[in-house]
Amino acid sequence: MTSKTTRINEPYYHSIEDIIHKKLELLNLKDGEVLVDLGCGDARNLIEACSFAKISCIGYEILPEAIADAHSNITKSGLEDRIEIRTEDFFDVDISTIKVLIIYLTRYALGELSLKLENELPKGARIVTHQFDIPAWKSDREIDYLQKNGQTEKIYLYTKK
């Protein structure tokens, strides 16, 4: 389902559940980590992540419809104490302490974000994306994931060097 778009004309799509699950498996989340989602949409990535490990999560989102969906989903899941939604543009936030990151943006947006990730993320930070790669980055792993609906999606795992 597509609704509104961001200031760089990014669509608001809901990630498919089995893709979310596979991306989180690749991240290999550990208890105590903080997972960050840039452009978290309805927060389903973050909600699912809480079932993988005892982590806390921060999602950044600026679209009012997505923010409302995120808060509703977090409340329904009972995870208000583990997931925080920040209504800030992720291009403007400090990402220098982020160690685990999940992103679902188009290649254009990932290209816009690529230099910020390179300049600000700490060495060793883990990033997972799907459908689109991060321009100018070399992934550690790329997998073609066959979804339940029969379609294949590419998932990329990166470590900041």
Q: What attributes does this structure have?
A:
disordered N terminus, Rossmann fold, 161 residues, 4 helices, 7 strands, alpha/beta
Assembly category: single chain
How many strands, what sense, and barrel or not for the largest sheet?
7 strands, mixed
CATH topology: Rossmann fold
Top-tier CATH class: Alpha Beta
Distance between the termini: 35 Å
Give the overall shape, derived from the CA principal axes. globular
Describe the structure.
By secondary structure, the chain is of the alpha/beta class. It has one domain: Vaccinia Virus protein VP39 (Rossmann fold, 3-Layer(aba) Sandwich). Helix content is 28%, strand content 23%. The protein contains four helices and seven strands. It has helices at residues 17-27, 44-49, 64-77, 107-120; strands spanning 34-38, 56-60, 83-86, 100-103, 126-130, 141-146, 152-159. The longest helix has 14 residues, at 64-77.
